[in-house]
Amino acid sequence: MSAPLTSTPPPSTPAPPNPTAYPPRVATIALNAWASMLGYLEAEIFGSLSRLVGDSDQLYRAHLRTVMLGMGFDPVLVDRADSRQGG
After folding, report:
1. What are the domain boundaries of the chain?
2. What are the residues whose beta carbons fall under 8 Å from the beta carbon of 80, sequence distance 6 or more?
């Protein structure tokens, strides 16, 4: 029996340098925010939110605010931007 074919290099082979790679902390923050907003949008698109809350616009603004604060945005600037949008 032969070994299965794989497209990944053996563990001893170092990965080639990636000049466009972000520091792990920045990548983690960005991926967490992206996954959080994607999950929210999927829940809204497929109708799950309408069974949970009456005002999905207000929930969206609150969720976006939470994600932005988690990313390290200045709370004053986040609140100011939300107030301009009618929040």
Report:
1. 24-84
2. none
